[in-house]
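---------- Forwarded message ----------

FYI, see the Beta-lactamase record below. Original note from H. follows.
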Amino acid sequence: MSTIETPAKKYLRRKCAGGHGRTSVMTVRSCPLARSARPFVAPFLLLLVAGCTHGAATVPDPGVPRTPPGAASRFAGLVGCFTMVELGTGETVEYGGEECDVRTSPASTFKIPNALIAVDTGVVQDENTVFRWDGKERWRATWNRDHSLATAMWHSTVWYFQRIAEQVGEPRYRAYLSAFQYGNADPSGDVTMFWLNDVLKISPREERRFLTALYENKLPVSPRAMTVVKKTLELRGDAIENVRDRLPFVDQIPAGVVFSGKTGSYLPDDGPPGPLGAIGWFVGAVEKQGRTWVFVCRIRSSEEKKIGPEAAKISYEILKGEGML
């Protein structure tokens, strides 16, 4: 009996063959997307089927985004975007207009997809996987010690994620980032620096869509990878002691609310930031009373300062004003 090639298998074979439908060195079995393609391809195929079914449910229309109160004053002196969506309803809160579609370096917010890829490929087993410090002194004192995936996420330990990058390699990054639809999906050049040197770029709205897929468990990685990484982003328990110096508001998070977040700061290496050259991010999620919101805040400035924590402060104030914190 001949084997019938399903649309999902056909899609996977073509992606693993470079989109040309020909056999390549990367077979379907060795393709990094192979074992996790089902949760990615299946929803797409189901949507196609639903479109042909009478009375099928449709994705909620978020309508016109609502502007958060006081947003203009919170972003005073900065160019910024805040965008948030409630999962399930699609209700969107947003400030920034066209700025929300401008792509920049993701800076350390890339540690989120980096960790997902690391767990999915087996480079890292879980949040407790420890990499030994190499003994090199780095500018942030908290980096100069052994780190687990969890502590490296809390302290934004660059060397930990660079060690992951050396083991993942550019071909697998390119495949995963394309599947994630993560900005320009470009990991070219130095595999340990592409998210820090303005090669990889993503907009706030694209980042929000990526986080939405993560918190809806729809990314093309294993469910376990998504669970592990989301746990490292939660600002509670041991995380509080490790992030309080940069995110002092963590002590004010109400009981019963799960607040998750990751900062990112980018400054060019060749001198002062110049016009809007300093970039700060804070991205994450709020889970409260059975409801979940994902949010993204990015600011740009001509001043060299701790703009990642500044983006976090703005996010906290907006979320508090929305009654979530």
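H. also flagged this: The CA atoms of residues 43 and 218 lie 8 Å apart.
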